Amino acid sequence: MSNLIHCIFWLLGRLPLRILHALGAAAGWMTYWASPTYRRHLRENLAHAYPQDVARRLLPQAVAHAGRGLLELPRVWMRPLKEVMPLVRQVSGGEHFEAAARRGKGILLLTPHLGCFDITAKYCASHAPITVLYRPPRKAWLDSIIVHGRTRDQQSLAAADLSGVRTLLKALKRGEAVGMLPDQAPKVGEGRWVDFFGKPAYTMTLAARMAESGATVLFIYAERLPQGAGYHVHLRPPNSDWSATEDKALAINREIEALIRECPEQYLWGYHRYKRPAGAEPSPTLPPTPSTPAPSNP
User: Fold this and answer.
1) What is the pTM of this model?
2) Which pLDDT band holds residue 246 (cuts at 50, 70, 90)?
3) Beta partners for 159?
4) DSSP 240
5) How far is CA 289 from CA 4, 49, 54, 199, 296, in A?
6) What residue ranges do the domains of the chain occupy?
7) What angle do CA 142, 235, 137 make, to 5 degrees?
8) Lowest mean pLDDT among 28-37, 54-63, 280-289
9) Helix (H) or strand (E) holding 94
């Protein structure tokens, strides 16, 4: 099974990105109509974040981009770095990464489920070693493909456990980069309920703790360009000074919300972000928050 999937991924990885994105858009709609649970999560999450009319306009684009995010992976994972990097057509904020590397205190890269988050690690690996937090999937055949795709060309993985945290801290002490998905729903005991688009979301606390390590914190995402033209990588420091911020988990969620508003159609809205992990206390009732501004070009 594993060898067959590897072969399929290898073959798909040889297709042009524009073909993969076209196939991905179709796959996105197939998944949307085939899975009532996925369809419900996508609709509900959009409705929490945006007014009804805006959510309705964003939904078709979000469905297509979710599929593109899946079908682009063979190209990003299976091809050599020298073939993947030309897909990065534009970089905004690259000077922040360069300055952080010169500082030598380590770089904490926070990447939400926005755009092509796997190519952001490839971009960073083309400049310096990077270790990415990793939670193995339930299926062994998928795990072997992910490990293959994410452990080449100055990339390494750290398990989402205590030993993995130590690995991340050691990488930061060496002045290297570490990456994680701060909007990934953690296991019970690894997070707490924090506001996200006006609703409690069980949010990892590890990213907030890592932000206190002295490393330079940068947010990064890769925007898909039209017609499979490639990607625009965006890098930036936090919008505000976190030195006096007590609730860094909430501050991180606010930063993620701001990034999503820039490119809302490319966020993974079907991800079960608001789920309650087994054994976790029920989500609290949060005070009302100001309404979320509509995106400028939904």
Assistant:
1) 0.91
2) confident
3) 134
4) S
5) 49, 11, 18, 9, 20
6) 88-266
7) 15
8) 280-289
9) helix 94-103
